[in-house]
Amino acid sequence: MHVVLIVEVEGLKDKVIFEKHLKKEGFTPIEEEEFAYEGDTTTHLFSTRAFILEVVEKGLKKSGFLTCKIMFQVGENPMEAYRFSHENNTFEPVAI
Q1: How many other C-beta atoms lie within 10 A of the C-beta of residue 71?
Q2: What's the pTM?
Q3: CA-to-CA distance for 11 and 80, rounded, in angstroms?
Q4: Helix H segments across 1-96?
């Protein structure tokens, strides 16, 4: 299934490190779109969601950031939006 990932990040200290990490994990930038990425998955929806959250979290922590929200779609399935909580040090679902 095709995956589309949209990242809204403020205070990203090193975009090169962030995107290098995402690319290593299979996400490539979408041409002419800022902080939009795509990739493919062969795992089921719940594993893919966990993988995306983990990949983005690690990329953010490697590059440094202030705030981050993400949303993504797996195949025809739009997923929840998430906001990174510095308090809990992880992504948490948010209502949109």
Answers
A1: 16
A2: 0.93
A3: 23
A4: 15-24, 45-63
Return the pLDDT at 96.
60
- Between CA 22 and CA 95 the distance in angstroms is 25
- Residue 12's DSSP bridge partners are none
Distance from the Cα of residue 40 to its chain's centroid: 14
Contact between residue 39 and residue 27 where contact means Cβ atoms under 8 Å apart: yes
Per-residue pLDDT tens digits for 22-75: 999 999 999 999 999 999 999 988 899 999 999 999 999 999 999 999 999 999
- Strands of 53-96 (E only): list them: 67-74, 77-78, 81-85, 90-94
The two tokens of residue 86 are 């510095």
Question: b/e for 31-54, b at 16 or more Cβ within 10 A?
Answer: eeeebebbbebeeeeeebbebbbe
Q: At what angle do helices 15-24 and 45-63 cross, to 10 degrees?
A: 150
Q: Is 76 helix (H, G, I), strand (E, B) or coil?
A: coil
